[in-house]
């Protein structure tokens, strides 16, 4: 028991904590996504969820020792931006019509 | 040493991302939620991406991490601005404690001014000027 603990590196202890905290953060954003109350609130929540997913992918890349996971993170950043701008245009257009 | 830097960056990044999540849940109106989600989460993700860069340490990964940070810093303010403007144009409700609304009256369907804003027809700039002239400090109840 003591031996296995000694063989654990600092990173092995940190990563589960970090991933759990990030998952909890996504949960909080999902609560806002469900509660609304208006469409812009939900769009902001979706944007935050995408940003947190990028953080999760980057820390998963460290956790699973898989640098390839950074590529979906990069793509997700750009898709989140396009999605948010599209939603914003929709909200503004709906208001002006 | 590299491990220590990685762990610290990971923790700082996670903390900021978590703060953004708490902020989006607790903040009272769309505009505050938007700004907390953008600033804190952007800094958090940048820290996590840099942690990945220091952990792997090879050129390809560092380049990709820096690219994530660059794109995030380019796109997050633009996205926040567009959604904030759209929310304002659509007449999103302002928090009752709002002090200044410089866009008031510029948009046909702008939000109703909350009771904290002066109800007469002075513009926000004049209103602020007269407040500073009188040396008035507005107390905001945060409870």
Summarize the structure.
Chain A is an all-alpha fold and 97 residues long.
What does this structure look like?
The complex is a heterodimer of chains A (97) and B (143). By secondary structure, chain A is mainly alpha-helical. Chain A has one domain (9-96). Chain A has four helices and no strands. Chain A has helices at residues 2-7, 10-35, 39-63, 70-96. In chain A, helix 2 (10-35) runs antiparallel to helix 3 (39-63). The longest helix of chain A is centred in the C-terminal third of the chain and has 27 residues, at 70-96. Chain A is elongated, with a radius of gyration of 18 Å. Chain B is mainly alpha-helical and 143 residues long. Chain B folds into two domains: 2-89, no CATH class; 96-135, no CATH class. In chain B, 65% of the residues lie in helices and 0% in strands. Chain B has helices at residues 2-26, 30-56, 59-89, 124-133. In chain B, helix 1 runs antiparallel to helix 2 (30-56) and helix 2 packs antiparallel against helix 3. Chain B is elongated. The model of chain B has no long low-confidence stretch (mean pLDDT 81). At the A-B interface, helix 2, helix 3 and helix 4 of A face helix 1, helix 2 and helix 3 of B.
